[in-house]
């Protein structure tokens, strides 16, 4: 199963969320103080909690300094145009690698979800998602030759190839011109426009109403998919806590500990049902964890599912950090919008 991305709340107070498999690529604009940087961090935070890898372009070094040397980075954070080019090439290289893996797989998978379901049945680890954030994208395009440049062509290629292989692109800038947006507009699933400098910039995003967002409403964005959305606020200090706490709820941690202590690491649907979990919930959990590489069938033990070293490592990491983390009931990834 697939994790969900929480994006914010609409005018009715309903939470706007999407499964990663349907999120696609995003176009994000907003001037300084509008909430754009917080929104990009929110996406990165939830990607880490989902077990994804990251490729980040942060030219001014102000959006993602807390993720420097983070273990989920596929390459160091790019802070120059040349490093940004290298990040795009690294992402395309990952697409090539995954294309080769898809060709070797039975059934010719056409999506990350299909590939992971098959590879798990073969007893191997699934592939993680890859979030690529290209902040200050408009400046990058200008510096590296414009909308018709080689860089623009490679980014466009990454856009149309990446989704099949679990690669999510976020194009972000303080504002966009029609020429820059034109190269990527057809590839994005949603445009998210915070407060911008001009009506022209808002129109280029397809969100002309964004020009009316007041300065007193940071985090409020106009979208072409969900209407007006008050995005969630994420305190930068929470990046020091992201990891096992965000991935496993306390109840799930207790299940893992019980399986290790009482069942030698076995975690089957009948066992979970015998412990009081509804069968539907047990099936959902087991299938989800198997796709994440946390459970694996053991042929030497009647193909029963057992906890993998990957899940044991998550549990151990949680235990070592428990004293520094606040209590959590459900692995919440974002604070209330009232924090803005």
UniProtKB/TrEMBL annotation:
| A Gene Ontology molecular function term of the record | ATP binding
Give the FtsK domain ranges. Answer: 13-203
Where on this chain does ATP bind?
30-37
Q: Please, which domain of life does this record's source organism belong to?
A: Bacteria
Q: Which SUPFAM superfamilies match?
A: P-loop containing nucleoside triphosphate hydrolases
> What Pfam families does UniProt report for this protein, alphabetically?
FtsK_SpoIIIE
What are the alphabetically sorted keywords of the record?
ATP-binding, Nucleotide-binding
Alphabetized InterPro entries for the sequence: FtsK/SpoIIIE/SftA (IPR050206), FtsK_dom (IPR002543), P-loop_NTPase (IPR027417)
PANTHER family assigned: DNA TRANSLOCASE FTSK, SPORULATION PROTEIN RELATED
Q: What is this protein called?
A: FtsK domain-containing protein
Which organism's genome codes for this protein? Bellilinea caldifistulae
């Amino acid at each position: 199963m697939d994790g969900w991305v929480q994006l914010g709340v609409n005018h009715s107070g309903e939470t706007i969320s999407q499964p990663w498999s349907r999120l696609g690529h995003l176009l994000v604009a907003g001037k300084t103080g509008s909430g754009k940087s917080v929104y990009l961090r929110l996406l990165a935070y939830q990607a880490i909690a989902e077990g994804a890898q990251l490729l980040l372009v942060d030219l001014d070094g102000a959006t993602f300094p807390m993720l420097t040397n983070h273990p989920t980075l596929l390459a160091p954070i790019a802070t120059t145009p040349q490093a940004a080019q290298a990040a795009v090439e690294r992402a395309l290289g990952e697409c090539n690698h995954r294309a080769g893996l898809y060709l070797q797989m039975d059934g010719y998978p056409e999506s990350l979800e299909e590939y992971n379901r098959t590879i798990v049945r073969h007893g191997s680890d699934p592939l993680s998602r890859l979030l690529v954030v290209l902040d200050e994208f408009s400046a990058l395009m200008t510096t590296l030759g414009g909308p018709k440049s080689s860089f623009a062509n490679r980014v466009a290629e990454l856009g149309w190839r990446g989704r099949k292989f679990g690669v999510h692109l976020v194009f972000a800038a303080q504002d966009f011109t029609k020429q820059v947006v034109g190269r990527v507009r057809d590839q994005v699933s949603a445009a998210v426009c915070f407060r911008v400098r001009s009506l022209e910039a808002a129109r280029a995003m397809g969100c002309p109403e964004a020009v009316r967002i007041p300065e007193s409403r940071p985090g409020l964005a106009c979208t072409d998919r969900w209407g007006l959305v008050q995005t969630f606020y994420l305190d930068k200090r929470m990046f020091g806590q992201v990891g096992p706490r965000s991935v496993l709820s306390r109840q799930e941690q207790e299940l893992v500990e019980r399986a290790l202590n009482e069942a030698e690491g076995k975690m089957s649907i009948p066992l979970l049902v015998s412990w009081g979990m509804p069968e539907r919930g047990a099936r959902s959990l087991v299938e989800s964890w198997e796709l994440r590489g946390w459970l694996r069938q053991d042929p030497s033990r009647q193909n029963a599912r057992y906890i993998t070293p990957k899940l044991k490592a998550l549990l151990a990491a949680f235990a070592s950090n428990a004293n520094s983390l606040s209590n959590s009931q459900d692995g919440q990834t974002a604070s209330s919008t009232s924090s803005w």
